Amino acid sequence: MIIGLMFLFINCSKEETRDRISYEIIHENSLSYSEENKIPKQFKVFENENEWNIFIPEIERVNPNQAEILKNLNFDFINNNLIIVIGEYFFYCCSEITIVGVYNNREKVSVDFYESGPGELTAVSQAILILKIKKDK
Predict the structure, then answer these.
(1) Which of 6, 51, 88, 116 makes a 20 to 30 Å CA pair with 97?
(2) Contact at 8 Å (CB) between 113 and 14?
(3) What pTM does this model have?
(4) Contacts with 80 (C-beta within 8 Å, 6 or more apart), sequence order
(5) Cα 4 to Cα 7: distance, rounded to the nearest angstrom
């Protein structure tokens, strides 16, 4: 019984430190390409323009046109952080990413998301979503 109470207490403590963050979707698209240059399914948080510019070649490697669009987002890194969510690599188009929530857990941002399965059109693609969150000040 004591172990059960400890487990319950630990789980409650973890939930209490996970604060929901409001976000705005600023870009939604897919990286379509003909080669198998995959980008791993992931999310990344960028706190400044330099971090973002270092990541852009990863997009450019698979889709130069989409990279060009993302280079020119005109994003305010002074007041906001940018988050990119990249979905699974599929041989069929087109999946969609749905955000369950964006959370701050002990000063680390995490994104819970899921992805709808691909449709029936043949095209190698990965869904991407760009989010904006306010910086903690």
Answers:
(1) 51
(2) no
(3) 0.79
(4) 132, 133, 134, 135
(5) 5
